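G., before I forget:
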Amino acid sequence: MTDPVLQTIGLNKSFGALKACQDVTLDLRQGEVHALIGPNGAGKSTLIQQIAGGLRPDTGRVMLAGEDVTGLGTAARAQRGLARTFQISALAMEDTVLQNAMLGALGVGKSPYRFLRPVFADNDLIDIAIAALERVGLASSAATRAGELSHGQRRQLEVAIALTLAPKAFVMDEPMAGLGASGSKSMTTLLAGLRAEAPILLVEHDMDAVFALADRISVLVYGQIIATGTVNDIRRDPDVRSAYLGDTA
Amino acid sequence: MTREAVLNSAVLMGLFIFPLWAWVVDEPFLITLATKTVILALAGVGLNIALGMGGLVSLGHAAFFGIGGYAMGVLASHAQSYDPILQSPILIEGTRSMPIIWLVAILTSGLAALAIGALSLRTSGVYFIMITLAFGQMLFFFAISWPAYGGEDGLSIYVRSEFPGLNTLDPIQFYAIAYVILAGVLLFAFRLRQSPFGLALNAARQSASRVMTVGMSPYRLQLVAFTLSGMITGLAGALFADLNRFVSPTMFSWQTSGEIMVFIIIGGVGRLFGPVIGAVLFVILEHVLGGISDYWLIYLGVLLLFIVLFARGGVIGTLVGRQASHD
């Protein structure tokens, strides 16, 4: 087994008396989709934030490609290859789809501190952006403003921007949220194809998508991981059934 | 050409033709008025980089306007008294040379903007407005209590600074200098919007977390924008001081910051020519209404209220529609 691309080691985070994250250790290996599931309030968002750099853990470490990134901020982690998508789309809504997609390559590959040449004269940047848009099926909407996109298209754009980072790992926060059945299906197909590029840590409520995509699943309840395993392991796990699946299935 | 581009060209042409006409009919006062307009517009173009592109509502840009003004005042006053600014360890003398004054104004206001921005940008929203206001007021009271350069009374300069090859005391020639600078800075602002930096800054205004997740620091982008913005407003301050041949702490006052912001709101926030059109209207209103009543600012207030309530895109937004602002 090769070293994990992304790893958390003994993460703890409390807000006052609330332990949002207790000794969370999980890893993301090359080529896999690792789904993180759990009921509302289980601490998934807190965990994602600690992985992406928005929150500092009280104790524990976050490792990215063998490097300890615990002390680094969001931007520095992104530069080291961590591509995150948001549950609620964070896009420059007044800008076009293409402009949004160009941001990724600007932040990671090229410098944004260039003041006089038009950004649209930078063909490398445009090529990277267009390639990513084609990948998610948004190339024909390149000139549309992000604010005018449908909800599903915004999700696709989020993924496209993540792709432009040429990341080592994806961290996706509910990419299916708010998508209809068909939208969810096409997003599942898209994500299935991405895992060859970089492994995906997938936080998701849509169980169909999770079972279709995940190579491994971790279940988070009250800030603790109660089980990690393959889809079948998790389906059979009695703790998981009572804590989580039992309620819905 | 978009409608906005047509409007912009018309404004630029108008600012070219009007003073020429005033020169032909021998109305130097109108030329001076036009010069004031152009210089105030320049200050606004500076603020608009922070406000329009960066979304940074700075109520402290008078600080940079004042620093630019005092850069001119201090250098020129030492030149006119033949008293060096510093004798040891190195000799620094005053100067009447505009290019040197401009350079000093840009550098000092840029450094001030870097320092003020570095602290203020740790906050946002109302706190950012308040902290920039506080820095502006600090410099205001500092200027008042600095007797070496006139304190509260300000500092008179008897002769306008010099520009090689031109007679700067001739109103039309001084106007030409200000106009060329404004045009150059507008060109810079235009290119800045379309540059990679412009794209990133624009995105940082709309979604800081988006910019962070692609590996850029919104703080750093905004700090660079704030510094560029302060430099341009500082340059405008130096020209303004040379126009009046007088600098006083008023340049640092929060009313000055407010006025510069008013130009932008009247003309259109985030529009390249917003501050230019705003400054033109402001000076016209000041001149026309000011002749009718000492309390002309009431009418300005009504106009501003009307624009904020009914015409959010300012004059440009009303004339050309809201669509074309970020192309």
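The mean pLDDT of chain B is 93. The interface with chain A takes residues 188, 191-192, 194-200, 202-203, 206-207, 209-217, 221, 224, 325-326 of chain B (CB under 8 Å).

More on Monday.
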